[in-house]
Amino acid sequence: MKYNYPQIRKSELVEEHFGHQLPAPYTWLRNTDDPEVKDFTARENTFTDQYFNKEEVNAMIEKLKAEKNPDLPLYISPWHDGYIASEDNDGNFTINKLDANLNKTKTLFKRYDLPERTPFYASPCPVDEDLLGIMAQVDNAPRPDIIVYDFRKGEILKILPMTFSGVWSKKKAVIYVPTTKTDGNKSQTVIQKWDRDTNEVSDVFAYEGNAIFGETKISEDGRSLIFSFSVNYSEDFFYIYNEEDESIYPLNPDKAMKLKYIDSINGKHYFVSLEENPHGDVIAINDKDDISKAQLIRSEKEAYIDSGFTVNEKIFLLGSKDGASKLISLDEDKEIELPEKVVSLSLNGKTAKGKVFSYDSFTSSPKLLEFDGETFKTLCGKDEDSSDLTVELLYGISIDDKTPIPYYLVRQKDAENDKSHKTLIYGYGGYNAPMPPWSTEMVSQTNIAAWVRSGGIYVHCLLRGGSEYGTRWHEEGMGMKKKNCYYDFIGIAESVIEKGWTVPEKIAISGCSNGGLLMSTLVTMRSDLWGCVIDSVPHTDMIHFAKDDRGPMYITEYGDPYNSKEEFEYLLSYSPVHNVKDVEYPAVYIQTGECDNNVPPYHGKSFAATMQEHNKSDNPILLRVLALGSHDRGQGEVFWQTIAEMHVFMEKNLK
User: Fold this and answer.
1) 653, containing H or E segment
2) Buried-most residue among 327, 397, 520, 637 (CB within 10 A)?
3) How high is the pLDDT of residue 143?
4) What is the mean pLDDT of residues 273-287?
5) pLDDT higher than 80, residue 101
6) Quick check: 438 and 528 in contact, CB under 8 A?
7) Nearest C-alpha neighbor of 325 from the set 314, 334, 336, 309
């Protein structure tokens, strides 16, 4: 059937860029507060409401809730004879008090308990447990605030606005990084300090170079503060700060470097360096020395090391091989065996005995594990029988430069490659971010084991642009090589089809944010290859994105369309909203949020309007705009409504 989509005004605006005449019919959608934009948004939401049967959506909500993996703390820290923990309950974040056995005893803060803010994370002061630093965000704010809270008195001492990161020092001070000050494509980052004794804020250090964001870290013993300033998503300048004498010195003064801080022990600062070895070298730098005097401690050859930590002053390295986690003891020079082969292990807190990790895999529910430097102990979560499922590491061939691209295929062991399987493919490919194994797909919250047991296939892509194979893997999928990500994904999809597991009509693809850009590009680049597209909070306008609030942060990944004709033409060649044609498109569900400052909602709105105008198939193009949605799928029942619509949409449109 053909759909009567909401009508929208097309302006006659034509922009000139490097000699190109570029029509811009929907740039007026950038103004969220414009009554005409609000009217268009309301009509699109009504159209989407009418597409769905409420009973089907409600039934799907109940089904998804039954399949949902248990909520586990996102981060825990010792506090008052137990723990303080942050938790995500269906998009609603809470700060909870846990007892010594990690049982929740009380919800301390939930949405709007703090003035107009949602709390995400709480850190106790190491020398006064009644002082808390709480990361919390106003719905429509681009970045969170740090709220300094006196738990004993039950009062807010200070709000440190618009921060990137912050840590407690040994002097009851919060050392933090406020929002960078931008001037065009330039920015300045200042480290600031809130002092408990005076309740005042002062500058600690101003980094005058161009940084997209800054970060503060503190050593496990509390003696060393490390400041880093990122010039892109791989390279940083580092400084060591001594709070006692307020001295600061640069670690790598001459150039930004690919370094990851581990910890400082007995006057030595340990880092993972990716400068010479993409697998990672562990180096040590004596206090007051710089990078030129670094000592090589270990050079990795197999895994890709991207971080480290200490337990009882012993150093452990956390990395991956083919996207799956590897844990290595530096002192004993050996790999520590994990409970499963293809898993993800990520640090999310500590206990009095050691570090706490979230543990996840494609075939079982997530767990929390405690690692004391020798063995793992399950803190919460349960063991499950997944002997009926199998995980295979396979390779597709990127369609442009023919590079083999790894992917994981999850299926039932007795599944036959008879082209009959509904298939969900997930990808991201950007910002030097890895895509580890997980039990729940990121966007639609599909329980992978349940999907596979219902006859489906799940495909997990390790695209260039990520960090699964070191920083060079990232560099091969960014800037003027960004289209490699899309070629990689297409190569993987064609591989799954060629192996006989599915056909295009049965393929759903899913992504959000940069992964939403991936989805939007794939639907315009290869409309014939997908049965259904779930496109969440996507970048779609790769010309105007550079003028967005966070544009200076994103041009380091994508390039600057205003910098040169070459960059403009490259970005234009795949910019989704500029590459929609009069062709038959698959079913597409586009979702964005009015409060999203990472990717403003005009990206989703203009793409939906353009797709609805040009689509020649009978497949629906839907737009769902969440009134209070940020860079997410909503909170509480709105969250469940959104992901239920995604699942119903897939069921209705996978042939």
Assistant:
1) helix 636-653
2) 520
3) 85
4) 96
5) yes
6) no
7) 336
For the whole prediction, is pTM greater than 0.85?
yes
Q: Which residue has the tokens 């001295």?
A: 247
Burial grade of 618 (CB within 10 A; 0-12, 13-18, 19 or more): exposed
Residue whose C-alpha is closest to residue 264's, from 275, 251, 254 = 251
Kindly state the tokens that stand for 319.
């990395």
Cite the DSSP H helix spans in 532-599: 551-558, 565-574
> Are 489 and 429 spatial neighbours (Cβ–Cβ below 8 Å)?
yes
Q: Residue 248: beta bridge partners?
A: 241
Give how far the C-alpha of residue 613 lies from the chain's centroid of Cα atoms, to the nearest Å: 31
The values of phi and psi at residue 546, to 5°, are -65, -20
- 3-state class of 392 per DSSP? strand
* CB neighbour list of residue 600: distance below 8 Å, 6 or more residues apart: 30, 32, 548, 549
pLDDT of residue 180: 62
Identify the three-state secondary structure at position 13.
coil
Domains of the chain with bracketed CATH: 14-67+386-653 (3.40.50.1820), 259-380 (2.130.10.120)
CA 631 – CA 596 distance, rounded (Å): 5
Longest Cα separation, the chain: 73
Quick count: other Cβ atoms within 10 Å of Cβ 233?
20
The Cα 330–Cα 333 span in angstroms is: 5
Q: Which two tokens stand for residue 195?
A: 């002092």
Residue 600 host element (H or E): none
294: its two tokens: 């670094």
189 neighbors 239 (Cβ within 8 angstroms): no
Cβ atoms of 539 and 513 within 8 Å: the answer is yes
**What tokens were used for 24?**
């811009």
